[in-house]
């Protein structure tokens, strides 16, 4: 069995290598980097359905590429795709997704606003949608959620943190596995889910720990 990770994320690759033999993993990112957005969605179930849709669309993209590229190859392949998002509360039963900081000057101010309005002393959710396609045609979908609570005094280190540039390219503007950990007070749920790939759920789906 070979496994194809449909992702550009080096963090997901690092996590998957903790679960599966390095030599059995290939990387084939989706050919279309565009993704469905979250505009107009405020309910938690709507946001999570959209995250699952994004992961499913990635999987279908990778499967189409494999169908073209694997002519004459018979080795069975399992395809793994995922999408991770940070969800914060904006009021009574209303939520919004914090994506990656904008790739333009001024991103530091936007991330600073996220910290002051949504992170400091508050709990937010990190959700990862998994979509796994097996050689027999089965497709299994899962969604894992982790609650992350930040310290109330995030402003103590915020200027330093923004100066590291670590926020760039990170959903929600921080990395739990790196310098962003200084802000975290508690985590309830999977740590690997916050990083981008819930290993506990994926191991169950793949049956690798049975």
Write a structural description.
There is one protein chain. With 210 residues, the protein is an alpha/beta fold. The protein has one domain: Maf protein (Alpha-Beta Complex). The protein has six helices and seven strands, in the order E-H-E-H-E-E-H-E-E-H-E-H-H. Strands 1, 2, 3, 4, 5, 6 and 7 form a seven-stranded mixed sheet that branches. The radius of gyration is 18 Å and the shape is elongated. The relative contact order is 0.17. The mean pLDDT is 93.
The CATH level-2 architecture is identified as: Alpha-Beta Complex
Domain count, please report it: 1
Looking at the structure, the CATH topology is Maf protein
What is the highest CATH level, the class? Alpha Beta
Number of helices: 6
Mean pLDDT metric? 93
Poorly predicted regions: none
Structural class: alpha/beta
Helix content: 25-40%
Order of helices and strands: EHEHEEHEEHEHH
- Return Rg in Å: 18 Å
The end-to-end span amounts to 16 Å
What share of residues are in beta strands?
A: 25-35%
Using the alpha-carbon principal axes, give the shape. elongated
Major β-sheet profile = 7 strands, mixed
Per DSSP E runs of 2 or more residues, the count of β-strands stands at 7
Describe the structure concisely for a colleague.
This protein is an alpha/beta fold and 210 residues long. Helix content is 34%, strand content 26%. Strands 1, 2, 3, 4, 5, 6 and 7 form a seven-stranded mixed beta sheet that branches.
For this entry, give a set of tags.
single chain, seven-stranded mixed β-sheet, 210 residues
Describe the SSE topology.
Layout: E1 2-5, H1 10-19, E2 25-27, H2 44-69, E3 77-91, E4 94-98, H3 107-119, E5 123-133, E6 139-150, H4 155-164, E7 184-188, H5 191-195, H6 199-206
Parallel strand pairs: 1-2, 1-3
Antiparallel strand pairs: 3-4, 3-5, 5-6, 6-7
